Structure formats: C-alpha cells, structure tokens
C-alpha cells in the first residue's frame, strides 16, 4: 500500500486552498474584519451589529465571483481607518472591474462605496451591495424602515422564517444594536429590499440592492457607470472602545437522561451512486444507516433496474427505504404514480415511506413570480395514497427549505413534510458554512407552525449542493476549491465535514426533527472514497479501501438512533457542538470543534471512568484507512482534562 502524508490543510478541509482570516480594523469603539474586499463581523463595543457589508458580483446562475484585488491600500490610524482597492471579477469571457473605498471614523461612522464601469456587456443575476444582519440580538427586535418615497414603517425582524421579502423599497434601516444605542444603515444606488436568509440556512437577514421584482439575469451595459454606497452611523451613548471577542474556553455540562429520543438517521442513495454503493455494501452496512432515501425520476429513465438495485442494497445493509418520486405530469400524474408503484412491485422493493414532489417545485420561484404548471397538491397526494397505500406519505420539496416555505403543502393530507438544505448557497468560506447551523432551529420551528406540527424529515443533506434550484446546473469546481452551489465540495473529505455533520444532526435532533438523512454512501456527497474525475488529494494515492472522517461521525450517530438523549449545555455553540445519548449500557457524548483553531473544553458531569476516542489530525490517516478505527473510545478521559480539541476534531466520550 502506498501511504502518503497529507498536509494539515487536506486533513482539515480536503483542499490546499487557504481560508485566511481577514485583517481587523478599528475606529474608536467600532471594529470590522476586512476580508478580500468586504467587511465582516462589524462590532460596536465588541457586540456584533452586522454580520457583513459587501459588494458582491453574481453570475447568471447566482454563483458568487471571488474578486481579485489590486492596488490595495489600508490605512489604520489612531482615529480610524480607510481602505482603497480595485477588483476584477471574471469567468468565461465575462469580466467586471470596480473601484472601492471604505472609511471608518472614531465616532463609529462607516462608509463603503463602489464604482464599476463594464468594458463589455456583463451578464449577472445581481451586482451590488449586500448588508447582512446577524440573528442573535436581532430576531424579533424592533426595526424602523425608511422607504425611498420618504415614508417610515415601524416593525420587527421576523421570528418565523419569512418566505417573502419582509421589507421593500428601502432607503435606510434603524434598530437598537446595544441598549440605548441605535444603528442606522443608509443605502444608495437603487431601491433595496430585505430577505430572510434563514430560508437558505444563512445565519442572517439580508438587505440587498436590485429588487427581485426586476428581471434576472440581466445585463450591465458596456460603458455605463454603476455607483453604489452603504453607510452606517450610530446614535446614543457609545462604548468607549472596541472590546475583544476572544473566549477563555468552552464549558460543557452533561446532565441526566432526557425524555427526547434520537430520531432515525439515514443516508441518501442517488441512482448514479447505486452501483458504487453495492460494490461497497459491507462498508455501507458498517455505516449502519437506519434507512435509505432513494430518488426515482422518470426524466432520468429510472425503472425496474434501479428499484432492483435499491432492494439489493437495502437487504444487504438492513435499512428501510424511503422513496422520493419526482412527478413529471401535470394532468396524468395518477397513471405516472401507478407505474412507479408497479416498477417497485416488480423489483420486490418494500417501501416504508414515499415522498412526492412535482418537477415545478424543484426550481426556485422568486416572490411575486409566476409558478410553472404543476398538479394541484391535494389531487397529487390523494393519487399517491392510492398508489402506495402501505407506505407513509410525504410532501414538500427535494430541494431547499426555501421552496418548502414558499410552496407550503396541505399538511393535513400527509404523514410528513420534507426538504433538504445546503450550507454553500450564498457563501462558501469555512466560517459561513459553520454559521449556517444557527439558522436550522428557526426553519424547523417555522415548518412546525405552518404544518400544524406534523413530522418533519430533513435530507439528504451535505456540504455540497444536492440540487441547484436557482440555476440550470451546479457551479463548476474543477480545481478542488470552496465554491458556492457546487456539488463537489472538498471539505466533505476532511475533518471539517465530520465536525459540521455532528453540529448539523445534533441541532436538528434537538429541534425535534422526525428523521434526518445525510449525503450519500459514495460520490461528491459521500462518506466512502471512490475514484472520480476531480482530484482527491491523499485519497487518490491510496491503494486500499478508504473512508472520509465523516464516515465515523455518521456511523456513531446512526447507532444512536432510538436511544434517549442526554441533557447537555454548552457555553459557546458557535465554537463547539456537542450531543449525547444513553445506549442502555453507557452514556455517550460526542464533541466537535467547529473551528480551525484549537479549543479548550471543560467537561463536567462525566463519570470518572470515562474513556475517549479522538478523530483529529493525528488520527486522520488511521481513521481514513481503517473504517473501524473510531468505533470505540481508546483512553481514559482523566488523562486528557481539560479536553483540547484540534481544528475540526471530534471526540467520542463513553462512561
């Protein structure tokens, strides 16, 4: 066996592409992180006021360009800062250049200006400023909206995830950022509007330029100057200086057994991966999914052959099958569903659940837009009941929560609703992906409110985009990078995915989701290595069966299904994820570092005889080349207190 030594970057994220932290700029009590042309984590006195202030350029499929900066000049003074740069966004013959200036003053005022002049016609879905408001300290709070006609609206940031635009025709916004301190955002260049970014699991509300009511994609004409700006100002008694947001460590308190049960956790099986999954059936069995989510789509000429393979894999693995059926017909859907049921019967495939979704509901329709023709859902669900009388029936979408929220099904006719998610819709950097975990509970609470509380199944989900409802295809990622709306994301192969998956599953389980499914056995959303057209550093050089670190996380969580959860509290859920259960013979606690930096964790409530296993940089090679390596904890926890978790490490504690 050829054994290479992977770099730290490949161990953590599967790619050598750096994900550097930006430069912190300060102006009196104001601080902001300058990150490749944009501002992040804008704080007043250490309190986050804005998640981001950015000038973004998107392609015709809503993919976000990564600007190349030149002539960058940063002046950090005692009384403030200023930034100037020029930027280029280019792809496949498309190019847009722009100049940007940023100025921060000691009174907390901040101004960001951009000017672009396309040399050639430039096709875009959106080009302009975006302001992101964080969730913490914002959801449900009062907001004052100044409209372009001079009128003012007093309202609140939505609590439930709003499927539409909460506010339109915006010129300025104001809200209380700190007790007695109001922040005001003034925006120039066009009418702005706000959307609830939690629809896509972004942890923010987004105020942006160019209303959705205008057509997209659109063309920026050659030679036409585009000028835009956003300014931030404060009123009230400001703090005296910027405070550090650094943590002194994370405290996790483990309590007793709760009454909440770990839901069934399973895996998606795309038809294009079924042959690979069958060839690795023993590893899929070791992964121990409680159920498989199998997609059936007549547009892809699926038939009895695919059903027979699903049946074989189900029998080999010992997992139930939930079938997703993409319905093509607007009028003859009853016959179409009968044909699908006939195929399943001929193949001998037993179905525990069936979810149906019209083709028209797989693509995004913007608020106010015209929906493509689709069957009446009431009629579709009745036909599905007739075709699959012994299976639980689900409806919703096989796409993002956004589409479920905008196309709310008549839940009284269903046994469950369903959707999937993707954390790289609008941003693909490591911190933004981890931050999407904050939005998940709001999605589940919103769905429960509009569905009357029926069972909610989520998945199959992964870091990569299972589907792109916003464009004709996935974003290309030939160079193994972090790319928005790409199906192949390199972090699926690194420790990053192992940590993110623990955060994802544990968040949904605590939120009361009925079933959770993740990714696929193999492929770009997979847990088991297979050869691919794209490069997979380290794994391509192996001459043995290999799994990605996430295999071990999901295998442990799959086995937790059906057990009672432990009551656990964590002092910093943005930094560390934790989840625990009682498996009738012992208590198990899994802890994941959601950052690339070492985190120190103090554990309380753990038995003195606790043992620990660690999935980290040191164990990466063993864990990826030995699928059973992480099955049992290896050493006494007492020797590892306080617990030090390396970047994206996952600990398995048993006592």
Structure description:
The protein is built from 12 helices and 35 strands. With 655 residues, it is α+β, with helices and mostly antiparallel strands. The chain has a 16-stranded antiparallel beta sheet that branches. Helix 4 (304-317) crosses helix 5 (333-347), helix 5 (333-347) runs parallel beside helix 6 (377-387) and helix 10 runs parallel beside helix 11.
Helix content: 10-25%
Biggest sheet statistics: 16 strands, antiparallel
Catalogue the unreliable spans.
none
How many whole angstroms does the radius of gyration measure?
Answer: 25 Å
Large-scale geometry: globular
Total count of helical runs of at least 4 residues: 12
- Alpha-carbon distance between the two ends: 36 Å
Mean pLDDT over the residues: 94
Strand proportion: 35-45%
Class derived from helix and strand content: alpha+beta
Quantity of strands, as a count:
35
Would you spell out the secondary-structure blueprint of this structure?
Elements (H helix, E strand, L loop, with lengths): L7 H6 L9 E5 L2 E6 L2 E7 L2 E12 L9 E10 L2 E12 L2 E12 L4 E7 L5 E3 L1 E9 L7 E6 L4 E5 L10 E12 L2 E8 L3 E5 L7 E6 L8 E3 L5 E10 L14 E12 L3 E5 L4 H6 L1 H7 L3 E7 L6 H14 L2 E8 L5 H15 L5 E6 L18 H11 L4 E9 H6 L9 E5 L9 H6 L4 H12 L3 E7 L33 H16 L4 E4 L30 H12 L3 E7 L5 E7 L4 E7 L5 E6 L6 E5 L4 H6 L9 E2 L6 E3 L4 E5 L1
Parallel strand pairs: 19-31, 20-21, 20-27, 21-22, 22-23, 23-24, 24-25, 25-26, 26-27
Antiparallel strand pairs: 1-2, 2-3, 3-4, 4-10, 5-6, 6-7, 7-8, 8-18, 9-17, 10-16, 11-12, 11-13, 13-14, 13-15, 14-18, 15-16, 19-28, 28-29, 29-30, 30-35, 31-34, 32-33, 32-35
